[in-house]
What we know:
Pfam families: ABC_tran, Wzt_C
Domain ABC transporter: 24-247
Family: Belongs to the ABC transporter superfamily.
GO molecular function, one term: ATP binding
Distance between the termini: 67 Å
Radius of gyration: 26 Å
Organism: Thiohalocapsa halophila
Bound molecules: adenosine-5'-triphosphate
Amino acid sequence: MFSEPAIHAAHLSKCYQIYDKPQDRLKQALWRGRRKFFHEFWALQDVSFEVQVGETVGIIGRNGSGKSTLLQILCGTLTPTAGEMAVRGRVAALLELGAGFNPEFTGRENAKLNAALLGLTAEQIDERLDCILAFADIGEFIDQPVKTYSSGMFVRLGFAVIAHVDADVLIIDEALAVGDGFFTQKCMRFLRRFRERGTVLFVSHDTSAVMNLCERAIWLDRGRIEQQGPAKETCEAYLAALHAQQRRELGVAEVARTAAEPEIQRSAEPAVDQRLQYLNCSPFRNDIEVFEFDFDATSFGAGGAKVVNVELRTPDGLPLAWVVGGSAVRLMVRVQALLDIERPIVGFFVKDRLGQLLFGDNTFLTYADQPVAVVAGNCVEASFDFSMPILPPGEYSIDIGVAEGSQSEHIQHHWAHDALLFRAHTSSVTTGLVGIPMADIQLRRIA
Ligand SMILES: Nc1ncnc2c1ncn2[C@@H]1O[C@H](COP(=O)(O)OP(=O)(O)OP(=O)(O)O)[C@@H](O)[C@H]1O
């Protein structure tokens, strides 16, 4: 069956008139087009693509490549100089911070106003307002004028509204970057569910976010589509081009390969490296700030147990407020049984701010033959000793799960989303999901 795409863009172009001096603008008006006092700048040139209903497509590209211009055209807030576009269904967009909000109105009033602008009836708004405000979760600020809001609060409120208006197409421009870790996780959970029924256009500089969320990506470069296709392929090509450019800027010469190149000899000899020691004395030390356990973390489960404390400690048991990536830590999880539990399993997952699982483990295998039964009202404490990976800068969280049974068949008694949040401030690792603490690295010249 033939079905129309959710987004159709054909030969879109946008030209801005650039005036070198403010008075040139006046001269242009006075000369009524008989002389030209500006030069043209094409922010978009001949951009064509389609997004099918139910697809999630990322838009990537360097600063100034035309991403926001494209989204504004698709949302109808900017008129293209040439080309045409069509978006099918109800479109909800999160573009510039605070756009569409009246600064003098309170958060509550703006939420109602925006929901109405996005097509909800008065009854629907009344029904959904509590859910919208709960999603935004900005406490008493909701009754303050939004001119007092931080950028994070704007994003919370803006996202909460677009998440509740039955949109067919969501257009999101880098907005999640200013939210805090908990909120970003919440948005990513929402987007993953939304993808099952709706279409998403997601602009980000963060290629791992695009690869994680999107099936397809469009790479814009100086206003033109450089490449479009599967997200992974397109992001990798974009990253390769970025690296090549950085190398050129740094003057790193490409090594020309010649026919006379000697055969590469592989060596199995162990190498030696003191990099971690060096890094820990440098500004690249991986300083990770650890926040307090969130007792009221969003959760689900059968309710037979509750996670009552989660802490990161030193291997000697001292509570940690900061951790250095690469060092030994102990994750302590205390669980209170609300029912008798014969075979409890306690587990954890560390996730990055996009909800990508980095690593995790559980007590099942260690205690499979000797389960630690616990009676209702009593607590069990699980501890996991491991080396903290070196984490790229950003926010992370730990989900904790308490189950009963076996690895494959169990009842989930309590799953606490984002029970513990931590933030990597500085890092020697900027790409990849985690850096592994290297025991040794060596580079030697072999005669
Ligand atoms: N009103 C305007 N007048 C003149 N030039 C503009 C205007 N708006 C945007 N531009 C230019 O158009 C180009 C594309 O801008 P756009 O904001 O779409 O890029 P972007 O890819 O979203 O960048 P970023 O990643 O920094 O948000 C930039 O060079 C920008 O300076």
